[in-house]
From TrEMBL:
The active site is at residue 500. GO terms for biological process: carbohydrate metabolic process. Residues 22-276 form the Glycoside hydrolase family 65 N-terminal domain. Substrate binds at residues 370-371, 612-613. Keywords: Glycosyltransferase, Hydrolase, Transferase. This is Glycosyl hydrolase family 65 protein. Residues 336-700 form the Glycoside hydrolase family 65 central catalytic domain. GO terms for molecular function: carbohydrate binding; glycosyltransferase activity; hydrolase activity, hydrolyzing O-glycosyl compounds. It holds the Pfam family Glyco_hydro_65N. Residues 709-769 form the Glycoside hydrolase family 65 C-terminal domain. Belongs to the glycosyl hydrolase 65 family. It comes from Gimibacter soli.
Length: 781
């Protein structure tokens, strides 16, 4: 196993677990803080960079993004082959609307150069506002207090608002505030790490129009090699002083300069509203009108109203999804922080999903992966089902491209979704760890089946859901076969499972187990549709040339699925040959050689028994009812010591597996690492952006781990336990249209409906119906 390395530092309880605080300016860790303090609204996201400039010798990564908006660039191969991905999608950088420069007496405030004291920054998880205070001391000794507040609206698409207040402590004289839209900020490169993004604003946007007048500033850009436009507009309000306003434009920068006078004790506040939007080239005029109207409405309503809207929106989210832990404030802080980022980063309009880094950075070029459906969609299914549905709708919108990809891969029927993408095409240039991961189809099906059965949303099932399930299920009969050599078992060859330290294997256990779940679930959902919505079933069957015989084929493939098992060890083998390889020399691998993917050739890694992340163990967690407890114990005992956790997707799964088996100390340690992965920068790469799926994994640790939650055909089933360090814990979820509060304490677990009339749940294997106004307490056994 990988040496422990940096440990989760959550030993100092935060003063208020609803706030993420930074009490000093940390130049060395600035890029990490910029990821942590990023704000988003599902569509617009912007990193937590300062309004003012930063000294050039300090690493700062600027970035503002629009979810689902990307540009295409060709992928170049010196040695290509048929079917290789041809283009990459990259999440575009858009103009930075945060920039505000403060100057007085010929000096400008620059972080890391100017003399500054009393620095403090905090993110309020209840209000969604990022606040900062700083005292700036001029060379002559006079000083100003600077206070900023920032929000990215969760209710008004593409809107950001900032208040920038300057109070003179003992200065009497001229002050200048220059507020700009910056379309010239620098990009980043991969720096030898394939997980990092490589992006520059000039790579992806071509200026079409721009300007500044007394009303504000604007940019209109065209995404290169596309017919998509991006509009950016800003306006301002000044309170507390009379200001002379003049344009402040330089190449690729538009803005306004505010010249004013401050006396000791006087405060001036500049409020800045920035609106972003995008649309087709053919609708440029409508885009411009829509952007300007939205900006004007925000300015009329003012920052205070936007703040009230934001807090109200978050209050409803926390009511549906809140977690409280009595006895571990550091973990309560981390869990809320993680859930906040999930909520603000997820697409809501059916046109986008959630990137691996959310909207906090351009790591992985802003791509969507399988972890959206395995980690994040289940979180939203249980907390905000409308977002889960929107994320699945995104996949449905790209179903035709998945069908086309399947044909490219010589499959006559079905659909194969891309391993990494934004716009629906395969963007992985390394097929052994990309296209070969056919389990992406099973991930989408897993999330679809769970969403339908937990929510009971049969309208979705009868339309998008059924079509997704049919087309993705068809692919398994194309990719696999009934092997006469293997006793007629259904085999799937040359695929890569979640453990990317093995590739191109025959009968990867996770892939096959999830394919079985996929096929069985598709048969179940289609049978329910045939019974409950026969007209919709018939219409869909006709449109897709779907015959009931296919259901029989799917059932046979599921029943005969090859699930490798080693009789001698009594474990499920990761694939047909995994156990034949030598175990990796962990004792001989120095700590600085992790992660292995950055220090060893892939073939070196592939030849050994070593895991990047959970594979068989992930199947155990997702498909818990398909394993006996003894099988789970043996599998975990074998695979955990050879797992490096080089992926942030891993510790949460091992935490849940250990919790189920009663290994409370091991579960708690892994859970703590999961929770504080980004707050403590445990993998040393949070500067690229946070790890969205790992954040969802922290919720899994509480719900699926300590509370033992599984959805059994849509019924919430619990086996709650209480970590020894906690007095009690509470969390909320939704199922079958009802809100459910779950409180776990030493004396037992209490279930109470927060809305809805009745809900049947399962507690330690026994069914109970919870009625409105009648909480039920049951023993933890």
């Amino acid at each position: 196993m990988q040496p422990a390395g940096k440990k989760a530092t959550g030993s100092v309880p935060p003063s208020d677990p609803w706030f993420i605080r930074e009490e000093r300016f940390d130049a060395a860790g600035l890029a990490v803080q910029e990821s942590l303090f990023a704000l988003a609204g599902g569509y617009l996201g912007t990193r937590g960079t300062f309004e003012e400039p930063v000294a050039p010798d300090i690493k700062s990564i600027e970035g503002t993004y629009l979810n689902g908006v990307y540009f295409r660039e060709p992928i170049h191969y010196d040695e290509g082959a048929f079917g290789f991905a041809t283009h990459n999608n990259k999440m575009v950088l858009v103009p930075n609307g945060k920039a505000i420069n403060l100057s007085a007496c010929g000096e400008s405030f620059v972080h890391g150069t100017s003399e500054a004291t009393d620095f403090s920054r905090s993110l309020d998880l209840r209000s969604g506002r990022l606040s900062r205070t700083t005292r700036w001391k001029l060379t002559g000794g006079r000083s100003f207090d600077i206070r900023t507040e920032r929000l990215v609206s969760l209710t008004r698409r593409g809107l950001m608002a900032i208040t920038y207040s300057v109070t003179s402590f003992d200065y009497d004289g001229a002050v200048t505030l220059t507020s700009t839209l910056d379309a010239a900020y620098g990009g980043t490169d991969r720096a030898g790490d394939p997980r990092a993004g490589q992006l520059s604003i000039t790579d992806c946007l071509t200026p079409m129009d721009s300007g500044t007048d007394t009303d504000g500033s604007f940019f209109l850009h065209r995404i290169k090699d596309s017919d998509t436009l991006v509009a950016t507009a800003a306006c301002h309000m000044v309170e507390g002083a009379d200001a002379t306003i003049t344009p402040a434009a330089t190449p690729h920068v538009e803005g306004q300069r505010f010249d004013l006078h401050l006396a000791p004790g006087q405060t001036v506040t500049l409020t800045k509203f920035v609106q972003y939007d995008h649309g087709p080239l053919a609708e440029a005029e409508a885009l411009d009108t829509r952007t300007r109207n939205a900006l004007a409405a925000a300015a009329r309503d003012g920052f205070d109203k936007l703040a009230v809207e934001q807090e109200a929106e978050l209050a409803t989210f926390w009511a549906d999804a809140g977690i409280e832990i009595n006895g571990a404030p550091d973990l309560a802080e981390a869990l809320r922080f993680n859930m906040f980022h999930l909520y603000q980063s997820a697409g809501r309009n059916g046109m986008s999903s959630i990137a691996a880094k959310g909207l906090t950075g351009h790591g992985y070029d802003g791509h969507y992966f399988w972890d959206s459906e395995i980690y994040v969609v289940p979180f939203f299914t249980a907390t905000r089902p409308a977002i889960a549905r929107a994320m699945l709708e995104y996949r449905y919108r790209h179903l035709d491209q998945a069908r086309a990809r399947a044909r490219t891969m010589a499959h006559k029927r079905g659909a194969l979704f891309p391993w990494r993408t934004i716009g629906g095409e395969e963007c992985s240039s390394y097929f052994p760890a990309g296209t070969a991961q056919y389990h992406i189809n099973a991930a989408i099906a897993y999330a679809t089946i769970q969403y339908i059965e937990v929510t009971g949303d049969m309208d979705f099932a009868a339309g998008m859901g059924a079509e997704l399930l049919i087309e993705t299920a068809r692919l398994w009969l194309e990719a696999g076969h009934f092997s006469a050599h293997d006793g007629g078992r259904f085999c799937i060859h040359e695929v890569t499972g979640p453990d990317e330290y093995s590739a191109m294997a025959d009968n990867n256990f996770y892939t096959n187990a999830m394919a079985r779940h996929h096929l069985e679930g598709a048969v179940r959902i289609m049978g329910r549709l045939a019974k409950d919505a026969p007209d919709a079933y018939a219409t869909l069957a006709d449109r897709l040339s779907f015959a009931s015989e296919e259901l029989g084929e799917w059932s046979e493939a599921a029943a005969k699925m090859n699930l490798p098992y080693d009789m001698k060890l009594g474990i499920h083998a990761q694939d047909d040959t995994f156990l034949n390889r030598p175990v990796w020399d962990f004792d001989g691998t120095p700590a600085d050689k992790y992660p292995l993917l950055l220090n060893f050739h892939p073939l070196t890694i592939y030849r050994h028994q070593v895991l990047k992340q959970a594979d068989v163990v992930l199947a155990m967690v997702l498909l818990s009812d398909r394993f006996t407890m003894e099988e789970k114990r043996r599998n975990l005992a074998y695979y955990e010591p050879i797992t490096t956790h080089d992926s942030t997707l891993s510790t949460c799964i091992y935490a849940v597996a250990n919790a189920e088996l009663g290994n409370r100390d091991a579960a708690y340690k892994l859970f703590m690492e999961t929770c504080r992965m980004d707050l403590d920068n445990l993998h040393g790469n949070t500067h690229y952006g946070v790890h969205a799926a790992c954040m969802a994994g922290s919720w899994m640790g509480v719900a699926n781990g300590f509370a033992g939650l599984r959805f059994e055909r849509g019924t919430p089933a619990f086996r709650p336990g209480l970590p020894s360090d906690w007095q009690d814990y509470r969390f909320a979820l939704r199922a079958r249209g009802c809100g459910l509060a779950v409180s776990v304490a030493t004396a037992g677990t209490t279930y109470e409906l927060t809305d809805g009339e009745s809900l049947t749940l399962r507690h330690y294997g026994k069914d109970h119906t919870i009625m409105a106004g009648q909480p039920l307490t049951l023993p933890n056994a």
